[in-house]
Amino acid sequence: MPTVTVEPIRRVGILGYGYVGRGTAHALGAVVDVGWHDPSVPGSRPLAELARWADALVICVPTPMSNSGAADSSIVREVAEQLAGLGFARPVIVKSTVPPGTTDDLARRWPLLALVFSPEFLRERHYLEDAVAPARVVLGWSPTIDGPRRAQVRDLFRRRFTDAPLVELTTVEAELLKYSANALFGVKVALANELAELAARLGASWDAVRAALVLDPRVGDGHLAVPGPDGKRGFGGSCLPKDMAALLSVATDQHVDLEVVAAAVHANRRRRPPGG
Ligand SMILES: NC(=O)c1ccc[n+]([C@@H]2O[C@H](COP(=O)([O-])OP(=O)(O)OC[C@H]3O[C@@H](n4cnc5c(N)ncnc54)[C@H](O)[C@@H]3O)[C@@H](O)[C@H]2O)c1
C-alpha cells in the first residue's frame, strides 16, 4: 500500500473559551498553536482573522437548556453559519453537546463545512486534567468531511492522545453517546441516593455497602457517593440536568418513552430542586 501523507494540523482555533474551550486549548496546545475567539474573554481574536489563520476550528460554545427542556443549539448554528459565510473549508470539530441529528443538519445546510462531532467528557471541577486524559477520543464523521480531512483530524488526535483508544462513529452515534453517558451517570446518582436513604433507615452505612459494591468491576465506582463531590444529595451542576432534559426531549420527538431516565430526573428533583 502506498503511504498517504497527511498535511498536519498545526494551528487550531477555539470558538468559545469556557471550560471545554480552555480544556481543549490546554490539551491540544501540547502539539499545535492555539488561538481563540470568545467575545467575553480577553485575548479573543476576531473570528475572520482566526479562521484565516487556523488549520482547524473547534466549536465549544454553550448549548443551554431552553424552557421546554430541549437543548438550545442556536449559538452552534450561528457560529456554523458565520464559518460558512467566511468560506471556511478546513475541518470544523464540534465539541458542544448537541442533540442527535444536529451536526448532520448543519452539514446539510452548509455543505462547505467539513464537520466532525467529537463529544467532550471532561468534568468542570477537573477540566484541565480531564481534558488531557480522555478515556477515549470519539470522532463522529459527517458526510461533508472527506477522506483527506478525516485523516488530518485523526492525525491531530493521535498525535496528542497517543494512549487513548480512537473510536470512529457516525455523527448521530457520537451525539447519542454523549447523552447516553450523562443519562447513565444521572441514573446512577438517583439510584445511589435511593439506596443510601434505605441504608440509613436500616441503620447501615451506604459508604460501606458502596465500597464493597464497586469491587465488582461490572459496577464502576463513579457517581455512587452520597452526598456527591459537591457535598449535596442528587445531581446538579451545568451538565447532567440539562443533558438529561435534552435527551428526554429528543426521545419525545421520536415517540420513545425513556421511563428510567424520566424517573431519575423526577427522583432527583425531590432531592435537589432545579438550580440547586
Ligand atoms: N462544562 C462541562 O463540564 C462540559 C463537559 C462536556 C461538554 N460540555 C458542553 O460543551 C459546551 C460548552 O460548555 P462550557 O462548559 O465550556 O461552557 P462555558 O459557558 O464555560 O463556555 C462557553 C463560552 O462560549 C462563549 N461564547 C458564547 N457565544 C459565543 C460565540 N458566538 N462565539 C464565541 N464564543 C461564544 C461564552 O462567552 C463562554 O465563554 C456545551 O455544549 C456543554 O454542554 C460541557
The fourth-level CATH homologous superfamily of the largest domain is: NAD(P)-binding Rossmann-like Domain
| DSSP strand count | 7
Biggest sheet: strand arrangement: 2-1-3-4-5-6-7
The helix/strand order is EHEHEHEHEHEHEHHHH
Low-confidence stretches: none
User: How many DSSP H or I helices?
Assistant: 10
Major sheet size, sense and barrel closure: 7 strands, mixed
Derived from helix and strand composition plus strand pairing, the structural class reads alpha/beta
Average pLDDT score: 96
| N- to C-terminal distance | 58 Å
Strand content: 5-15%
CATH architecture of the largest domain: 3-Layer(aba) Sandwich
Q: How many independent structural domains?
A: 2
CATH class of the largest domain: Alpha Beta
Percent helix among the residues?
A: 40-55%
Shape: globular
CATH domain fold name of the largest domain: Rossmann fold
Descriptive account of the structure:
The structure is a single chain. The chain has helices at 19-28, 47-53, 74-85, 102-109, 127-131, 147-160, 171-201, 206-213, 240-253, 259-271, and strands spanning 11-15, 33-37, 56-59, 91-94, 114-117, 137-141, 166-170. The chain is globular, with a radius of gyration of 20 Å. Strands 2-1-3-4-5-6-7 form a 7-stranded mixed beta sheet, sandwiched between helices. It is 44% helix and 12% strand. The chain is an alpha/beta fold and 276 residues long. The model has no long low-confidence stretch (mean pLDDT 96). The chain has 2 domains: 11-171, NAD(P)-binding Rossmann-like Domain (Rossmann fold, 3-Layer(aba) Sandwich), CATH 3.40.50; 177-271, Orthogonal Bundle (N-(1-d-carboxylethyl)-l-norvaline Dehydrogenase, domain 2). The chain has 10 helices and 7 strands.
